[in-house]
Amino acid sequence: MTRPVLHHIPVCPFSQRVEILLELKGRRDAVEFSVVDVTRPRDPALLAKTRGATALPILDLADGRILKESLVLLRYFEDLFPTPMVARADPYERAVENMLIALEGDFVAAGYRFVMSQDKGRREALAEAMTAQYQKLDDFLSWQAPGSEYLFDRFGLAECVYAPIFVRFWFLDYYEGYDIPEDFARVRRWRDACLAHPAAQQVSYEEVVKSYYDYAWGAGNGDLLPGRARSSFAFLPHWRERPWPPRGKEKAAGDAELGLVQPCAGAQIGR
Ligand SMILES: N[C@@H](CCC(=O)N[C@@H](CS)C(=O)NCC(=O)O)C(=O)O
To answer: Mind listing the pLDDT tens digit for each residue in 171-202?
Structure first.
């Protein structure tokens, strides 16, 4: 049987959500994960599947049917492979889980806005906006699950949603010197438990820092920064072979300093 294909950009947090869910179900191999090179023009065949939109991930069910939106995909796979259940079975508990998941959009947006900002004068306000988001999560977890690590007794659907975002927000540590303030111990404990879970180990700190260099200088999704010929999202040279970029946002680095000079033909592609 042909496997469904999940098309996603490199280091995509939204596709990692699905990867974690499948991992928890022992079904990681049920889906083919296909990385799209966002530094090249989009393949017209893929554009046709997304009806002209460039946003990914999309799930191609290999029979002409397409699904998108990571939260929708999570619920699709939860229904398709009902055991073991990752979401809560009890209707009340599922509603509590969904209340926490409902906070993810603003949380994600605050972190990306912060890392992509080039305006030093706004740094404090953006850090405060990020902290306000963590405060909301801290308050919610202190209310619903004061004594545990996760929202419930195990890593569940809410953790699938947030863990990849906590992973991406390592870029705030490296480029903005920002971490969750110590006062918010409950959300720190949750974040640390999510990051440590064996099912959420697909992406390393090093991969995030090196790949998201261009985001920290204001260019997302493979866009090219002035004076640069290669994006930090380029497949080659592989991120492991590149040096660590300069920390912070003091001085922009060029392709050579980032180890992004075009390698010889025939080199290997992939994670
Ligand atoms: N709400 C979407 C977000 C998807 C999204 O923002 N994808 C980004 C990459 S991580 C993207 O495709 N950006 C490129 C674009 O929009 O053209 C989801 O949860 O799946």
So the answer is: 999 999 999 999 999 999 999 999 999 999 99
Position in ligand 1 atom list of the atom nearest CA 54: 17
> Could you identify the atom of ligand 1 that is nearest to the CA of residue 12?
10
Q: What is the pLDDT of residue 267?
A: 52
Q: Tell which one of 6, 11, 14 to mutate to probe ligand 1, the residue whose CB is within 8 A of the most ligand atoms.
A: 14
Calculate the alpha carbon distances from 201 to 120, 195, 198, 211 in Å.
33, 8, 6, 17
Q: Give me the helix-helix angle, 123-144 and 185-196, nearest 10°.
A: 90
Name the residue of 36, 56, 160 to mutate for ligand 1: max ligand atoms within 8 A of Cβ: 56
Residues with CB under 6 A from ligand 1: 9, 12, 14, 54-57, 69-70, 221
* Residue-range domains of the chain with CATH: 5-80 (3.40.30.10), 91-200 (1.20.1050.10)
In terms of pLDDT, which residue wins out, 265 or 169?
Answer: 169
Helix axes 123-144, 91-101, angle to 10 degrees: 170
Distances (CA, A) of 18 to 2, 23, 27: 18, 8, 11
Ligand 1 geometric centre to CA of 224 (Å): 18
Question: Which protein residue has the closest C-alpha to ligand 1 atom 10?
Answer: 12
CA 104 to ligand 1 center in whole angstroms: 14
